[in-house]
Design a protein that fits this description.
Mean pLDDT: 81
Strand order of the largest sheet: 2-1-3-4
Number of strands: 14
Largest sheet: 4 strands, parallel
Helix content: 55-70%
Strand content: 5-15%
Structural class: alpha/beta
Low-confidence stretches: 16-22, 505-509
Radius of gyration: 36 Å
Length: 522
């Protein structure tokens, strides 16, 4: 009887198993022994590093195609579970057996041409498929359990490092600062992803292979809430509160998303004008357009059937300086406010304790709502989509409270620092504006003002809340009694402290926040 030509097929589930070679060598040795025993000639060997639970394995499909085209008389496989742990692949093999193709299993004595042998093989294939199904479910349970604990059960993203199973990801001290810079730069709206990718590569940001982070990779980073302390599963859209340390605040993450959605994108202007897009016409509400004529700058309303307000920049400067002059403090006022601010800061401690308790109560309420929401979902009150939407909203709300609480713990000293920096700002605004460059003037204007309204050839200027509080104060004369000073300035001090205490969670006055932060960091 002439020898026949056969394929051999061996498989391991992971690349690591394939690299060690132990499992592959054992399988191949068993196949060689089986071939020698039955005088079978192996004409081609197929080797695969892929789980048998997965459909569409390229090497397995190539082997099947070869058998269907009659390139071999059959195939020798180590065991049934090496060939198929899903019923689709086992059905394909069964079709080949039914067509007369020989299929041998080196470690199992099965006569596949008999009813009993085929039934035994079918049962083993079903058991292998069920094993994979159960393994998959147990793996999902394990992953979900870790996610509920706030752990990320996958490899660390750029900016973090793995710290072992059961431990939260730790911040990468080298890459994390670059990640934060990427968020901050993109939030300004001054750079697109291409320019940001180049800039961050120059600064030192690298992917896991030590190469430049691609545009898609950078977009993935900027869309990933993991950097704010949250874990989002892209496949399901579900969000979990992580216990890893965040790299960026949620407020910064939201600013980045505003830029992605077309908000806060600063357009490049050919000519720089201090008050561009800041002045509105009193009559029609449209923005005045700046233009330069004979060395002078004018702001005009171009709306039809309007009074056509026309302002000289010189007129705007004078009105702005008049407002800044009103903000200036006398030496007595400045000294009084500085001394009393320390006392007021200490008085805030009791109020802060009340706020702290309120935040803790809000956290407990959210946890209770999450628990009730889960019970309602189990009882069938919500479908999965509605459940995830409500759950994610509560997780985001809980994260915002955590950030407030984190800021709150050190807020008392921060309020005092910001108040001092603010006093310096209001005292220096008048002189700073007079000597500053146009770009610096613009920054000061955006920091201190909220609204410009033009009517004819005049303009009215609205100061932002804290500056208006100071400008509209009732001043007291130099040398007036201390009691009179307290009566006059105490309400001013209280209102300013209230404002700066809430500055962390304010979504307005971003320019003031940035200015105060830059001053207190120095």
């Amino acid at each position: 009887m002439p020898t026949k030509g056969y394929f051999s097929y061996i498989r391991v589930s992971t690349q690591r198993q394939g690299q060690t070679g132990t499992s592959l060598a054992e399988q191949q040795a068993a196949i060689e022994r089986h071939a020698n025993k039955w005088n079978l000639t192996i004409i081609k060997r197929f080797e695969e590093r892929e789980t048998a639970a997965k459909l569409g394995r390229p090497v397995f499909l190539e082997m099947l195609r070869g058998l269907k085209h009659g390139k071999a008389d059959g195939v020798i496989i180590h065991k049934i579970d090496r060939s198929a742990r899903n019923l689709k692949d086992w059905a394909d093999l069964g079709s080949l057996i039914d067509s007369g193709m020989e299929v041998h299993f080196a470690s199992e004595s099965l006569d596949l041409n008999s009813r009993g042998g085929r039934l035994s093989a079918d049962i083993q294939a079903v058991v292998a498929s069920d094993y994979i199904r159960n393994l998959r479910e147990e793996t999902k349970k394990g992953i979900y359990g870790r996610l509920k604990q706030g752990l990320y059960p996958f490899p660390a993203v750029i900016g973090y490092a793995d710290s072992g199973k059961g431990n939260p990801k730790k911040i990468d001290p080298i890459q994390a600062p670059f990640i934060k810079q990427a968020f901050e730069l993109y939030a300004t709206g001054n750079r697109g992803l291409i320019a940001l990718s180049d800039e961050m590569y120059k600064r030192g940001l690298r992917n896991k292979n030590g190469k430049k982070v691609t545009i898609n990779g950078l977009s993935t980073i900027l869309h990933n809430p993991f950097y704010t302390g949250l874990i989002k599963i892209e496949k399901t859209g579900e969000i979990f509160a992580g216990i890893h340390k965040p790299i960026v605040l949620k407020s910064l993450f939201d600013k980045v998303h505003d830029v992605f959605n077309g908000k806060n994108i600063k357009k490049q202007n050919r000519h720089f004008f201090v008050f561009r897009r800041l002045i509105r016409c009193q009559s029609c509400g449209n923005l005045l357009i700046p233009e330069r004529q004979k060395g002078l700058i004018y702001y005009r309303c171009h709306t039809r059937n309007c009074q056509r307000s026309t302002l000289k920049e010189e007129t705007i400067d004078k009105e702005l300086l008049r407002n800044f002059k009103k903000m200036q403090l006398t030496d007595e006022e400045y000294l009084f406010l500085r001394q009393e601010s320390v006392k007021e800061s200490n008085n805030q401690l009791s109020e802060m304790e009340t706020t702290r308790k309120q935040l803790l109560l809000q956290q407990d309420q959210i946890k209770d709502r999450l628990s009730k929401l889960a019970d309602a979902y189990v009882d069938g009150v919500f479908d999965k989509e509605t459940y995830l939407e409500k759950k994610n909203a509560l997780i985001f709300e809980e994260q915002a409270i955590k950030e407030r609480f984190a800021n709150f713990n050190s807020n008392n000293q921060e309020v005092l620092k910001r108040f001092d920096a603010f006093l310096e700002l209001v005292n220096s605004a008048y002189l700073s504006y007079k000597v500053a460059k146009p770009e610096d003037r613009r920054d000061l204007v955006e920091t201190a003002t909220s609204n410009f309204l033009a009517e004819g050839k005049s303009v009215s200027i609205k100061l932002k809340t804290p500056f208006e509080i100071v400008a509209e104060r009732q001043s007291f004369t130099s040398g007036s009694p201390k009691r009179e000073a307290r009566r006059t300035l105490a309400p001013l001090l209280k209102n300013l402290f209230k404002y700066f205490k809430e500055l962390d969670i304010s979504k307005n006055d971003d320019e003031l926040v940035n200015y105060i932060s830059s001053k207190t960091e120095k």
